[in-house]
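In pairs, describe these two lines:
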Amino acid sequence: MASREKFAFVLFRPQSAGNIGAAARALKNMGFDDLRLVAPGTLKSREAAAMAVHADDVLARATVYPDLAAALADCSVAVGTTGRRGGYRSRAYPLRAAAAELDAIAGSNKIAIVFGREDRGLTNRELKLCNRLITIPTAPEYPSLNLAQAVVVVAYELMMAAEIEAARAPHFVAAAISDPMLARMEEALVSIGFIPDDNPDHIMFAIREILGRSGLTAREVEILNGMARQMRWVAEGGHRTLAEKRRAGKKLR
């Protein structure tokens, strides 16, 4: 059973102080207390405190970050929430099906659950920093959820999943380590022509999802960094230079 301290709830550019307070209350209701705010549009303490009710301690401990990457830096897994479908978002897992797996992974890893702005959710730019996606099934006639509603539903499902004994998961690296590797991998794949330099995101979304689904240990990141360096070396002609040296060495024998 994972500790609830292993989950961070990240609100990306929330526009309503009331929603921030209501989210704090939702987290306390379900036993979570790591609330992170990325460039909040407002932090009116009175309005937020009124909605937080008895969760003023969670609200007071909420940390503010200038950008999403900073908020995710210490997390091994970043889970983006989306209510829209199509394209990359079609790979989103229903929340209940994902909750048990997330709880098992959280046994050894810090996990961030990322929620977007009230008016438009998370854009593809923000989703690039997430290696998994979840969605909350709703009635098709009116699928949109209020931000605080979405937080309480996710927190509830994670709380319930924590009641199920889960196998111990390996320790995965944090985003601060895996993200630079993914940037190197993107440069390497562009250099060998595997992905186009004018639109690398489509394939990189899929690669990020594949690696995020399995999780990455420090040793695996080291291997992938080595692969990226080797691809760049080949693309820049290093293999041809090495082949010439080998041929020259044979002639001297």
